[in-house]
Amino acid sequence: MADAFDAVTLFDADGVDADLYTDTVQRKTPLEPEKQLLLAILEDALACYRKNIFARTAKKRTAYRDAEEWIFATDDERFLGFESVCGALGIEPSYLRRGLVEWKRRKVKTNAPAEAA
Q: In the chain, what are the domain boundaries?
């Protein structure tokens, strides 16, 4: 599972309030096991998206495309769809998507390898 810090650093340069993420995800009282699982799914998708943006192998390109497809699907009403997972965790999906779009724009513009997540 990706470290929660990685998701926080995703938006640091965007001026997005990292405390909001931390308050939502890292609570003083532990999350229920079901929410821990949902958080692990979300963090894994974010890590796959970030780590594999400039992937050269077919396996890593597939991981990137799968994560991107899952994150940006707006008509996915499955229980484990991106919007459902975010909703269960109290995270606004459109806010997270905007941050990812801006992060990707900066990465592509600088053509720098994605940070290890």
A: 4-110
